[in-house]
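Record type: monomer structure entry
Structure origin: computed from sequence
Chain ID: A
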Amino acid sequence: MDLEFQSRVREWIAEKLQGTNQMSFSDLVCALPGVHPNDIARELNHFGLQPLRNDPKERGDGVYSQDRLPVPHPLDYDWRFTEESRLLLLGEIEQVAPTLEDKVVFLGAPTLFQAARDGAIAARCFLIDVCPETVSALRRNFAGQAFLADILTDELPALAGTVVMADPPWYEEFAQAFLWASSRIVRVGGTILLSAPPVGTRPGIEQEWGRTLAFANTLGLKFIRSDQCLRYESPPFERNALRAAGHPEVASAWRPGVLARFEKVHIVEATRPNVTSGRARWVERSAFGVRFRMRRKSSPAIRNPALIELVDGDVLASVSRRDPRREHADVWTSGNRIFGCVDTEALTRVVEALASGHRADTYVERLVGRKLTLIEQGLVLGAAAQVSCVISRELGEYLLGI
């Protein structure tokens, strides 16, 4: 860890613990400015302190529910606002977009868009999102208002808004790309609301934010103010990561966020930031609501599609992009389970077979146009058994909180 950042984390902890020995670990996590529980635990060990640990069952948030949208996947950096934050944001939006002529465009933030569709701005709000499953689910009820596009690279839909609410992944290049897209959509005099990471999220946040503000200025945007007023629900992948790291009792809404406000003061033709999400490196398949990402690998023949253990318990005990173990993952689930795999192409077919209710070996045979050898059949059926176990485990986590 960066030594200066480490020193600041220790100061924040000491300040919160001063004069008390009754603060639980979960309460301490929630009281700090976005410092990850793993970093807090490491610094507490440095002090030789062991704060009170709550029973994880006391959180009362085991079951995951986000309005029937697809479960978030960690490779999408998909955190969703708490109900309180959704209400706060909708209140802000309605203040700056009070009339029927005021259009509102959401870049990401599908649950906020869904909540807006149930309120006063229902007929005049629009969503741009990169997740096909999310957009498809929303289009069933909100046809013509949900658009599928990668905000980083795709041509933007022809939308114009009085307000743009942008919820990018919390990395500098994403924030700048979302600001560029926002500046193309919002009218002069309009408002951009941008979610951003608080100072304790990782080292260098203040320097990143300074560069982001400078970039916003080149887009004709005037910074108005910012404050730490948002909260996010931990998605299942983060809950699993915290559990794997030994922090199952941390409150679901521990992660805070900063809301920044900008006004577009004039039109600028600025060059689009060169940012890619890396989505093209993966192929996704879902089975019974569990999402699998397989790293793209071409294979001229069927090899072994088995899931290979990479970490103890299979769940990566981190959600940070900086974790070097991420580079070894060939398969990644929406529960933050990572695996190696020699033949991800065959594994993709296995997941497809299970999702469609077919035997994996006969499904693969139809696709390759021949009978599998006994060895190939055994490999495919073995992988199908592994995938079935993963699906069963993650469904229990999503639906039952176990």
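Annotation 1: The first strand starts at residue 80 and ends at 81.
Annotation 2: The mean pLDDT is 92.
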